[in-house]
Amino acid sequence: MKNIKLLLICSAVSVLILSACSSQKTTSIKIAEVTRSLFYAPQYVAIEKGFFKEEGLDVELQTTWGGDKTMTALLSDGADVALVGSETSIYVYGQNSKDYAINFAQLTQTDGTFLVAKEPKPDFQWEDLKDSTFLGQRKGGMPQMVGEFVLKKHGIDPHHDLNLKQNIDFANIPGAFVSGDAEYVQLFEPTASTFEKEGKGHIIASFGEESGHVPYTVYMTKQSFMKNNEKAVESFTRAVYKAQQWVENNSAEAIASVIQPYFEDTDLEMLTSSIDRYKSQGSFATDPILDEKEWNNLKNIMDEAGELPVDAAYDELVNTKFAEEVIKE
Predict the structure, then answer these.
(1) Which of 113, 129, 210, 266 registers the highest number of CB atoms within 10 A of its CB?
(2) Can you tell me the distance from the alpha carbon of 312 to that of 310, in angstroms, rounded to the nearest whole number?
(3) Where is this protein localized, as stated in its record (predicted)?
(4) Phi, psi (5° rounding) for residue 90?
(5) Which listed CATH number (3.90.470.10, 3.40.190.10, 3.40.50.300, 3.40.50.1820) goes with 113-211?
(6) Angle at CA 220, nearest 5°, toward 215 and 226?
């Protein structure tokens, strides 16, 4: 008789546990990332370490390969959240969109490109670039705008002092540099370090160190989604913050080991050195807050490049409420 009672009690407890588990709803979030880059290491850490799952979020990650495609996915509801440069939110706002994108969590806070030369330049000075053939990035994109900003800071007019080439698609820039006549190029990691290891190029300067803090890559969502899904946006921001803190407090090698599944063609040693380069120059934001100084720096860079369509107010396109809440916790 005692065994029967015990069996009944265990059965009842099991039912209660299963019922409690089934009552915990999981929210699906579709993320569109502008490209696949180890520059976004904290995002992959958040997925692989289960930080999104801890917050009751089931994230689906898609790579949309370009700012225009990423924003199209967001605005057409092909994605709930976009990871892309903040400049894209200003472009959309400048088109008088009724349901424009709001920046709510910053992931990277510097430019992620490096100046790579075909030949070794042990005594490099920025003025050495004058009259050279320079393979630039897409017009209107953050890499190109930051590049121009840095060049101008060093007294170089990119459109008059250089033979500037901007007609190559982002994915084809590395190959075009190797096979073409360009003497200099802007490259992200791990491509820059890979080229250096293979003798195809030499890293001689960092655009991230030269340009200062800027909201280079940020999570954004439409006004309507934010209004109707505040809890999900807060949970998303909390997961991002957990990942940022984990990246800040762990070694480049540990980070590389976690995110290696996203970069199967890059060996662990190269991933580690590339991540270490980004960590050492403070590229990964340590919290999700996009502050007004960074926003103004972004607008200044866009204005210098002649790409600022409207003087977008910080309070209009940035919402730090969720970031501030999760940091307080």
Answers:
(1) 113
(2) 6
(3) Periplasm
(4) -70, -40
(5) 3.40.190.10
(6) 140
